[in-house]
Amino acid sequence: LYGGKTSREIRDGIAERILSFFTLGHMVYVVGHSLGSVYAFDAVNDLIKAGLLDPNNRRTWPVHGLLTIGSPLGLKMFKRRGRSALADIGNGRPKFRWRNVWDPSDPVVSGNAYGKSRVKYNIAQGYPNAKERGWEVRDRVVSTGKTHLMAHTAIWSSPQVIAELISLVSK
Questions:
Q1: Is 0.90 topped by the overall pTM?
Q2: CB 84 within 8 A of CB 131
Q3: What's CA 48's distance to the chain center, in Å?
Q4: How confident is the model over 37-67, as pLDDT tens digits?
Q5: Which residues, including other chains, have CB under 8 Å from residue 57's CB and lie 6 or more apart?
Q6: Helices (DSSP H) in the chain: which residue ranges?
Q7: Rounded distance between C-alpha atoms, residue 33 and residue 73, angstroms
Q8: d(CA 5, CA 142)
Q9: CA–CA distances in Å: residue 91 to residues 51, 55, 61, 62, 130
Q10: For position 87, what pLDDT does the model report?
Q11: Phi and psi at residue 139, in whole multiples of 5°?
């Protein structure tokens, strides 16, 4: 189950990898797909809660942005976590950037096993305190032309995913 010992080990492992790359002098951007986006989100939050993202000095941040792809984080089951999970990184000028890319026919995003399209989905709506907490959250809708689980995996071949990643790292 999510929230158990194994999931804690996964989140801790992601946070440790982020810190190891940062220690080597690399700017780190985290990309998570599907359930991996949930673990990535939590690992980033753990680093923020540990006080490692000083709002006044972005150069000290071990992670500079998060890209979630085909993420279930907008579903009701994660909204309760979202309200309490976003840690306050302060009111400094730098914002922690989170980009979310999704296909409206993706059953993992919609929560509908039949891939019922979600045209009015916005992950930021599930995290209403994100802006006040110093997060810059943006959604990108990508229509792959696929349905059901094919939409969940076809998104990887979309040029918009690469465009969002480039946008994330180029600022």
A1: no
A2: no
A3: 14
A4: 999 998 998 888 888 888 788 888 899 999 9
A5: none
A6: 5-23, 35-49, 76-85, 107-110, 148-154, 159-169
A7: 11
A8: 34
A9: 14, 7, 15, 18, 12
A10: 59
A11: -105, 150
Partnered with residue 96 across adjacent β-strands are: 135
Lookup: tokens for 165: 């990643």
Residue 98: in which H helix or E strand, if any?
Answer: strand 96-102
Residue type, position 61, single letter: W
Confidence class for position 83, pLDDT limits 50, 70, 90: very low
List all residues 6 or more positions away from 81 whose beta carbon is below 8 Å from its beta carbon.
none
Residues in the chain: 171
Whether residue 134 contacts residue 153, with contact meaning beta carbons closer than 8 Å, is answered with no
What residue type is 112 in one-letter code?
Answer: N
For 93-114, b/e burial (b = at least 16 CB within 10 A) is ebbbbbbbbbbbbbbbbbeeee
CA-derived radius of gyration, the chain? 16
Which of 117, 113, 104 minimizes the C-alpha distance to 154?
Answer: 104
| Single-letter residue type at 5 | K
